[in-house]
Every structure is written in structure tokens, then in C-alpha cells.
Design a protein that fits this description.
single chain; 148 residues; alpha+beta; Thiol Ester Dehydrase, Chain A; seven-stranded mixed sheet; 2 helices; 7 strands
């Protein structure tokens, strides 16, 4: 998976908490999924304006590719974008990036398969049209594989 920062429009700062750090001084591997979740939620709120109370989203699968360790002293941001849209599921890519004096450095990449979900019916449902259109418009149709 060869990701480029230039393919991403949305980024959000990630606060590293002391409790995120493991015994050797790195962010614990399980915490990366929380960082991805923070970025996705911010993206849905700020860009897509997704009403999660009306139409929920659950995670179907997550992948994490650890490239470089992150420490408590690092300043990081998470880039996120939608890369594939199906009927009820869609893929989101994440880049955890360290801010350095020489620019941004990718430390971790990840992919999450998200599923549009109706909690009252307890089942997956089609992605709402408004949210679908906003994801496509924001993340550029040329970068999204639409599997409808």
C-alpha cells in the first residue's frame, strides 16, 4: 500500500496521552485504532455532517501498517479519506503523520471498512444518499472506487 499525503484533503490533530505509551516509550499498537476512530469521527462531523444518531456506522474490519514508532514527544496528525463506496459499506484510509522540522513523515497507514448501520433494525442499510454524495464530492471522484 503506497499512500501519498497529497491524495488527502482532511487532517486532524491527534493528542498523544501518557496512557497511550507502552513500556518502551512508544505508542501502544492497540491505540492506533483509537487514533483512526478519532479522525473518522471528526471527518464525519466536520466534512460529511453525518447524523450518526439517525444512520449509524460500525466497523467491519481494520488494518494497520506500522512503519515508524510514535512517541509521547511527537506531534502527530491523522489524514483520512474515503477510498471506496459500495451499497452499505465503504473503505476509509488513514495516515498517521509526524510533524518534523523538515515536513511531514508518514508513521502508520491503515484501512477501515465501515458499514452503514440501522441500530433500530439491527442490520446494515444502504449508505444515505446525502452522505454518499458528500464523501464522493469531498474526496474527489477520481480517487474513489464506487462499487455500485
Amino acid at each position: 500500500m503506497s499512500e501519498k499525503i497529497s491524495d488527502y484533503k482532511y487532517k486532524t490533530p491527534i493528542a498523544i496521552r501518557f496512557s497511550d505509551i507502552d513500556a518502551v516509550g512508544h505508542v501502544n499498537n492497540a491505540i492506533y485504532l483509537t487514533y483512526f476512530e478519532v479522525a473518522r469521527l471528526n471527518y464525519w462531523r466536520e466534512i460529511i455532517n453525518w447524523d450518526l444518531r439517525k444512520n449509524g456506522v460500525i466497523v467491519g474490519r481494520s488494518e494497520v501498517n506500522y512503519l515508524k514508532p510514535i512517541t509521547l514527544e511527537d506531534e502527530i496528525v491523522c489524514y483520512v479519506r474515503t477510498t471506496r463506496i459500495g451499497n452499505s459499506s465503504f473503505d476509509m484510509m488513514h495516515l498517521l503523520v509526524r510533524i518534523t522540522p523538515n515536513g511531514e513523515e508518514i508513521c502508520t497507514t491503515g484501512k477501515t471498512v465501515c458499514i452503514s448501520y440501522d441500530y433500530s433494525l439491527n442490520k446494515s442499510v444502504s449508505i444515505p444518499l446525502r452522505e454518499r454524495e458528500k464523501m464522493i464530492a469531498y474526496d474527489e471522484p477520481r480517487l474513489i472506487l464506487n462499487t455500485n
